[in-house]
Amino acid sequence: MTTEQELQSLFNTLDRDQDGKISINDLFLSPGLSAIISSETNTSSPQELLANYDSDFDGSITFEELKSAVEKVSSLN
Hints:
This protein is mostly helical.
């Protein structure tokens, strides 16, 4: 598992427009980073990440949603 600081750095890199959210487009534009996110959240695609962890259903992932997803997967291991 990555540290919260590493996760924040990854999130900031993916958040291209710096709006505090990662959209599906952000994920598709950075396939290498998207693969890291998929690995950390045990999802196979950006669509699955959004379907499973977009808790407010706005079509994007906030840092808190991402952090929650990583923590959930880590607790299962």
